[in-house]
Amino acid sequence: MARVIAIANQKGGVGKTTSTLNIGAALAERHQRTLLVDMDPQGALTASLGVSTYDLEATLYSVFANPHSLLSDLIVPVRPCLDLVPANVDLAAAELNLSNRSGREFFFKYALAPTRERYDFILIDCQPSLGLLTVNALTAADEVIIPVQCQFLSLRGMRMLLDTIEKIRVRLNPSLELTGILGTMYNTGTIHSQEVLEEARKIFGAKVFNVVIKESVRFAEAPVVHKSILEYESRHDGAAAYRRLAEVLTQDGQKE
Amino acid sequence: MARVIAIANQKGGVGKTTSTLNIGAALAERHQRTLLVDMDPQGALTASLGVSTYDLEATLYSVFANPHSLLSDLIVPVRPCLDLVPANVDLAAAELNLSNRSGREFFFKYALAPTRERYDFILIDCQPSLGLLTVNALTAADEVIIPVQCQFLSLRGMRMLLDTIEKIRVRLNPSLELTGILGTMYNTGTIHSQEVLEEARKIFGAKVFNVVIKESVRFAEAPVVHKSILEYESRHDGAAAYRRLAEVLTQDGQKE
Ligand SMILES: Nc1ncnc2c1ncn2[C@@H]1O[C@H](COP(=O)(O)OP(=O)(O)OP(=O)(O)O)[C@@H](O)[C@H]1O
Ligand SMILES: Nc1ncnc2c1ncn2[C@@H]1O[C@H](COP(=O)(O)OP(=O)(O)OP(=O)(O)O)[C@@H](O)[C@H]1O
Ligand SMILES: [Mg+2]
Ligand SMILES: [Mg+2]
Fold this sequence. Notes:
2 copies of one chain form a homodimer. With about 260 residues, chain A is of the alpha/beta class.
């Protein structure tokens, strides 16, 4: 039975898509059967893997629009042990369609259920919002990983996200757990990143992964050629960090 | 009559809040009466100016919830020639409240109308989404400035945003014009930023401002002490760049 992990943070540009892609790639490298789900109408994850949505008959939107549509029909294999459910701008309509429907928070959970036993991990890339698509992801997931850019504005948004996660646990999904907070874009050349990371550790303690992803332009370059950081520059610090994180996750969520 | 400019991009973390704050501060420095509107429930602009929303009786949410509530009652002076309409998490409820109401796109435009003659510029900081709050901002605005991080993933989201702006111009707001595309977080040490900026200029031509904001950790530090970059480090490259941008805007939108 797959571990379903939502990668979420309503703060924009903190490395949600980059983390979903690279944690996924690192898990696949460890021969874990992994499914990535692009839950963002911008489709950054889909684009980062070079999957074009023009010639696809259906994307994630169809699961929300047509309850008989099967998630398994949408799956695109992208690497050994790594599959993708792609998204495009149509998915933005799902949010408006869902808002008046009963059980609107559970559409994705029901769509995902038949697929869970085919995978060891299912990672969901969320958009920078706490709207219905993200609520659907958090309701379907057992776990949440929160990427946080090591900057003040990113850290201050955490309170709101944790409040939302708690509400979802109480009302919609009692099994939802915070697996960890991942520091990203850590800029070794400045004090600011260090201060923010220390502050995060002070507030959230062991929930903050020991693994931190350092800032590197390689992360911006890799999506251009549709590669994960592991493929783009296998010996890079960032590749090593995501590999360590995948190792932590496969030791059944044990923290380093 | 104020020029109303929405600062928008559904891609997260591209410098929308930072640009709203610093363009605003630079306009105020030129003695232009400027109003900043925080249209993001995360309230990053409000936090960056050190305005606490706990002790405020009302925030932007109230103009969406109660049509008789006056925007002018919400205005908080923050610097000479610079006022703020603050936001907090309550604003997230506005999006759900609005979705079934007729004229839902026009709530903010009507709320803003009586205030326009008191200012020379009104800048609206949008959240990383194309939902109803951003649509309200784009319907109330005459102009749009689009910050784009000089990275591949940020540039690729532009098509979707320009399509949305065009739809709003056709259906809701015929006077909406794209004033310019602002390159942000330009990393001088790498080729990637340069390539992305060149690509943007190739596609969007003169719509891309000559002024580009370079990457600097000072931008991450300044919000911690509730200062604009102009106050935090007046001789900084970034401060000069936002001042030049304000100059371009006050020469009635003439491009450099
Ligand atoms: N460790 C890193 N160092 C430097 N750049 C990074 C790093 N991780 C990601 N990036 C780059 O930063 C930008 C933002 O990352 P990404 O798009 O993954 O964030 P996001 O949280 O998914 O954004 P959104 O909120 O728009 O969905 C991208 O251009 C990405 O290539
Ligand atoms: N030119 C710059 N160089 C380096 N860092 C910057 C620059 N401009 C902004 N930042 C920092 O990058 C982060 C993202 O910027 P900001 O929050 O303004 O983006 P945003 O588009 O408003 O994000 P969101 O999509 O979450 O609203 C912030 O921590 C900010 O301090
Ligand atoms: Mg993303
Ligand atoms: Mg912002």
